[in-house]
Amino acid sequence: MNRLNNINKINRNTQEYFSRFRIPSGCAVFGVVNESGERFSGQMVMDGISVMHERSNGLGGGFAAYGIYPGFEDDWVFHVFYDDMETKRQTEDEIARNFKILFGEEIPTVKISQIVNPPVIYRYFLKSKRNGDAFETEEDSIMDFVMHVNRDIRGAYIVSSGKNMGIFKGVGFPEDIGRFFKLDQYKGHLWTSHGRFPTNSVGWWGGAHPFGLLNWSVVHNGEISSFGTNKRFVSRFGYECTLSTDTEVITYLLDLLVRKQKIDIELVHLILASPLWEDIERMPVKERDILKALRILYGSALLNGPFSIIAGSSDFMYALNDRIKLRPLVAARKDRYLFISSEEAPIRRICASPDHLWHPDGGEPVIGIVRKKEIKKEIKSVRKIQDNKKFTKLVNTEMISLNKSRGDLNGSGIKAI
Q: pLDDT tens for residues 300-357?
């Protein structure tokens, strides 16, 4: 009996000791995409993320799913959190002024003891009354509307705003959030998931991952120490961070670079996780000059700090580590499936014998493209950028402008490419 009491005392003291400290390497990310576009149940992803239960602490879990609304492929779908019914009424008035509401309902959930005090959660299937013009695309008008609601209507948060996709998240462990939203009843061709261990921000429903805008969703493990710089950079283009976490800005950076500035997703890592200056200096002249230009043009978009992210979009899944790999990331393939995870165990749980399993290097992207006959290889060389005419034209234009306004870039020796 004394021995049992001593064991219980040790366990209790250990829990009390660790409860006083944050675990900065916590958080779990997990994603699966079927590159042929075949849909599969959300149960697969719930089973995978549940293996990393200890990486989170119950203050945030969530999922992003693509292809789950096959009857509404061409329509916008908003998932919205409301603090109360008056906020819901006010927000729905705003939605009705800007959209034709095809269908709206409370998102089906099931009561479970692990999930307490959820907000009012609705979804709306919409057609925009504004189709965009020469100065603003339809996507830009949707983005502006989302920013408006999240900033100006107290107690209303549009957490998902894409087409044929949805974000389901909240305060709880991810496997419990999955059961709460009955995600085993949904099928999609791409799923990402997250188990949260908050470090620098509070645990609340809007702050759980994934973060979304239009068709983007992002789950993240780590801390973005460059958040202030990144936030100021995207604010110049109309993006406002209102959800009290550094992960939100990653979503906006991806939308700005890929959707607005038309940079190929296979090149984005050269901005978000650019090679170190010392590595750039050792590269051949052509590549060195291009990468120097990128560091100057997009220095404020560089993500500093430890991170591993998985981003989802309608037709691809994208994963990236920080440059020196301070957060774990594992990838595997089996037939047309690509798996990405914080750990190997979740992959093995749902795919015991993958065809190929590897640990991506720091700053090396992993990309799964949907409905492509040939799977594109992961980019391991900056030579790819020489073949991207749109990207090179963008750099040329910006560098010429900079050279005219600042001379020889303050003596750096970098000329227009």
A: 999 999 999 999 999 999 999 999 999 999 999 999 999 999 999 999 999 999 999 9
- The domain segmentation of the chain, as residue ranges, is 27-223+305-380
Q: What is the mean pLDDT of residues 273-282?
A: 91
Residue 134: Cβ within 10 Å count:
5
Tell me which DSSP letter residue 201 carries: S
Residue whose entry in the numeric block shows the structure tokens 């957060």: 327
Q: Which two tokens stand for residue 144?
A: 């502006």
**pLDDT reported for residue 143:** 95
Q: Is the peptide bond before 70 cis (omega within 30 degrees of 0)?
A: no
Give the residue-averaged pLDDT of 46-71: 90
* Structure confidence by residue, pLDDT tens digits, 175-193: 999 999 999 999 999 999 9
Of 26, 27, 258, 382, which residue is the catalytic one? 27
Q: What is the mean pLDDT of residues 194-203?
A: 70
Written as one letter, the residue type at 199 is: T
What is the amino acid identity at position 46?
M
CATH number of the structural domain 27-223+305-380: 3.60.20.10
H or E element: which one contains 341?
strand 337-341
Tell me, yes or no, if 351 is annotated catalytic. Answer: no
Counting DSSP H helices and E strands in the chain, the numbers are: 12, 18
Q: What distance, in Å, lies between the first and last C-alpha atoms of the chain? A: 77
The count of other CB atoms within 10 Å of the CB of residue 402 is 17
Sign of CA dihedral 294, 298, 301, 306: positive
CA-closest candidate to residue 250, choices 197, 305, 309, 200: 309
